[in-house]
Amino acid sequence: MSHLFEHNGASGRGYSQPDPIYPVDNLQIPSSLVRSKLPRWPRISEPEMVRHYTWLSNRNFGIDTGFYPLGSCTMKHNPRVNEVIAQLPGIADLHPLQPEHQIQGTLAIFHEMQEMLGICAGMDAVTLQPVAGAQGEFTAIRCFQEYFRSRGELNRTKVIVPDSAHGTNPASASMAGFEIVEIPSQADGRLDLDALRAVVGDDTAAMMITNPSTLGVFEPEIAEAAAIVHDAGGQMYYDGANFNAILGRTSPGIMGFDAVHYNLHKTFSQPHGGGGPGSGPIGVKSHLAEFLPGPIVERREVASGDTLTTVNDEWWYHWQEPAHSIGKVQQWHGNSGAVIRSWAFYRRYGKDLKTMSEHAVLNANYLRHVIMKEAEEKGVSHVFCDGAPVDVVKHEFTLSLAPLKEQKGLGAMDVAKGLLDKGYMAPTVYFPLIVPECMMIEPTETESKEVLDEFARKFIEVLQEDADVLHNAPVTTKVRRVDEVYAARNLVLSYPFDE
């Protein structure tokens, strides 16, 4: 085990830095800001620091170390060229308060991302400010809220969500003060239009839904659902977590949505995991644009004789505040690094984004088919079943391990831990809640056929294990099975120094 924080015996400092540009001899620091004792930082050499973080990385699992089929999270390859571009000095070293004429390049990138995201989702205006998908949801719901207030429709207090929705959907709406109305899905996991018609009314503010759903099932009647909500005076919100499945094939705008959030850390390859960093821009139709959080980047043509800039003789980019903005939802201008990386991804693969989605769907259906075929050949097809009985799924699919639970007392969590011993990150378990003992698998478009074939074989091997083996799994990982409930309720976020 690394003992980084126990290296406090060395005197002096464990770092060096250039001399200050300005003299500090006469700098007077207020006594209230001076420490009473030295901080408990480790005083170590650079090699010791490198060894500590290398040790940590060896105990971790990531997309660079193995297959990461985490359902509904699109954990795919993050091209390294994105990192190179995001770390260019003219991008990475900017300050958010620098004058506009000094940051025209970055503003141009922001503007291009706004335009691109708007086009691919069929939206009229975009803000890049939210730094997570859930924050994007909340932002869109707040725009709905202010839209209704501007119209005097204070009676719209309810938000409709299907029972297959991401948990962040009802949470975001509830945070904004709305009442949540949940509607059941049909037997095949698709939206029940009769259930929707039964709950819409003058008090309906919005419906929140993703398409395809968390079951990986496309909603073919989504346009009719949008019409039902719009006829009642409500708004349609598209959860963009599954945008990876439809990009270039269709769009939320075509389906009838009024607002959408994008997960740049899913669809557009910004690295994520462990809670961040992320980026959740939102796009809206024109009637909601004036409520977006600002500032957003606007572009205007440089007129003859204009002396605004010497950087670009054609366009001038500047920050603009929407007329009735809900205000900022994040400090500065959002997660600039995530936006830059995603812009690099879009610029490199823009013409191939449709192919990206097609391959994501192909890989999901192929892996689903291979698992079913392998299970039948090995005689274990009876211990699980499809989470959504449809012929074709989109970017992900669900399996129910309820039969395994009944027959051997093993649940989805046990199978997940067994996959860790096989060298894989486990898929999502117990979500969506409408599938008992659920395991949700998303292979993404960046994995090869060979990887998918091998995963299917290992998955079936886990299903063939004895109950005692899986109850004790994992046994090959750096850390054995942990008490997740205890860990969640008793967080330790700092090193436990002995005082």
Q: Write down how many β-strands occur, each being a DSSP E stretch of 2 or more residues.
A: 13
Distance between the termini: 21 Å
User: In which order are the strands of the major sheet placed?
Assistant: 1-7-6-5-4-2-3
Radius of gyration: 26 Å
* The top level CATH class name of the largest domain: Alpha Beta
Biggest sheet record? 7 strands, mixed
Average pLDDT score: 91
Named at the architecture level, the CATH assignment of the largest domain is: 3-Layer(aba) Sandwich
| Structural category | alpha/beta
CATH superfamily of the largest domain: Type I PLP-dependent aspartate aminotransferase-like (Major domain)
Globally, the shape reads globular
Measured as a percent range, the helix fraction is 25-40%
CATH topology title of the largest domain = Aspartate Aminotransferase, domain 2
- Please indicate the count of domains: 3
Strand content: 5-15%
Uncertain runs: none
Question: How do the SSEs run, as a string of H and E?
Answer: HHHHEHEHEHEHEHEEEEHHEEHHEEHHH
The number of helical elements comes to: 16
In short:
By secondary structure, this protein is of the alpha/beta class. Helix content is 34%, strand content 11%.
